[in-house]
Amino acid sequence: MLDLKWLREQPDALDRALARRGLPPIAAALLERDAAIRALQTELQEQQARRNALSRDIGRLRARSEDASGAMAEVAALKAAVQDGEEDLRARTAALDDILAGLPNVLDDDVPDGADESANVELRRWGEPRRFDFEPREHDGIGARLGMDFGRAAKLSGARFVALFGQLARLERALAAFMLDLQTKEHGYTEVAPPLLVRDNAVFGSGQLPKFAEDLFRTTSGYWLIPTAEIPLANLVADEILDAARLPLRYTAWTPCFRSEAGAAGRDTKGMIRQHQFTKVELISITRPEQSKDEHERMTACAEEVLRRLGLPYRVVVLCSGDTGFAARKTYDIEVWLPGQGRYREISSCSNCGDFQARRMRARFRPEGERRTELVHTLNGSGLAVGRTLIAVLESFQQADGSVVLPEAIRPYMGGLERLTPDG
Q: Does the annotation mark 259 as catalytic?
């Protein structure tokens, strides 16, 4: 959520920030609402002060056995007026908060301008896509002979679900274990096994509510199924004041994720690319403001290392203003090469959210030796999307006979198995 004090001081900056995302100006309307709220607050304070003064007068009049009926009538009228005013104030404040909650984060100055993903800027590439002496197949064609079953999954749950059997089920688990070991043993992340069902305040805190409710699944009892472990991991510090010496905090988790894909109708309906349920290893950092820029680079490098160890070619792009997510001030996408599709596809997004989520979560830290508190900065990234990593392994290391040679880094997690075979 944006800082209302900043809006009062720099309304033009807000409108410029919104314009970069293709949104209309709104600062003047917000300031008008804010001014009306502050005027009402002043009026209520004056009415309450008048009411308190009259109450003291009533006491003195009664002590002298004088008529206090006039003062009592005015106190009653003021009481009713204050009650009505407080109700109006709550409604006005809630309406302003709702508008502020729907405004996206302010982008960093170095985020490139652009309307959509076509304006994203490639920063670097790693690895050379493999040259095949046969026509490479897409993952669903490869997986059909290895234990990937969309038909049975559809019988259970409908479209955008998959069931993995045998060696593919093991490979998914092995990839996640490999990612977790890398991030915890070498990169300093603490593994967490968080709840998969969360309440409104957690989904609001990380920025998915109220704007993206239709993209989520909700139970009849009011819980939300997490679309990403970012939600429970970031909210671990909600409503807390952290010691500066503890920062940065780094958490990782392997969880199922659930998304309705309401905004992706007709996109990637074939295969495992875009599912209602998938697994992901998430990375979260909680930092001091001056740490977050460097932490963003570090987190992205931690995610890249997974692909390097697996020998999967990829590229890193910085998202343009029109493609950057709601809560992010800057995002790097890591895109893995998929030979079956002949193009790079997103496998991780690493975002610096600044203090945007922290303001919603009321997450602060106390600088060393000071009494005041400041908002922390939060960052999140995939390290990596496990299903898409499995896809990349199948497509990149497929063989003409339908088998798949496993990367050396994953073989210890597969009991030494070197190859997936159709009869495996």
A: yes
Residue of 321, 359, 388, 395 marked active site: 388
Find the helix or strand (DSSP H, E) in which 317 lies.
Answer: strand 314-318
Number of domain units in the chain: 2
Range of the domain at 69: 4-101
Q: Indicate if the pLDDT at residue 31 is higher than 80.
A: yes
* 290 belongs to the catalytic site: no
Give the global pTM. 0.93
**Residue 259 placed within a domain:** yes
Average of pLDDT values for 76-100? 94
Residue 109 maps to a domain:
no
Average pLDDT (102-113) is 97
**What are the tens digits of pLDDT across the range 327-359?**
999 999 999 999 999 999 999 999 999 999 999
Q: Are residues 287 and 197 in the same domain?
A: yes
The residue from 51, 173, 274, 366 that is catalytic is 274
d(CA 275, CA 199): 23
Q: Is 372 known to be catalytic?
A: no
- The catalytically annotated residue of 50, 346, 362, 419 is 346
Catalytic residue among 21, 160, 259, 329: 259
- Strand, coil or helix: 161: coil
Q: Cα separation of 192 and 194, whole Å?
A: 6
- Active-site residue flag, 130: no
Question: What gap in Å lies between CA 51 and CA 2, rounded to an integer?
Answer: 36
Domain annotation covers residue 148: yes
Catalytic annotation, pick one of 349, 351, 382, 403:
349
The residue among 263 and 206 whose pLDDT is bigger is 206
Annotation says 285 is catalytic: no
Q: Under 8 Å CB-to-CB from 106, ≥6 apart: which residues?
A: 2, 13, 14, 17, 329, 354
Pair 336, 307: CB distance under 8 Å: yes
| CA 415 from centroid of its chain's CA atoms | 35
180 and 39 within one domain: no
Average pLDDT, the chain: 95
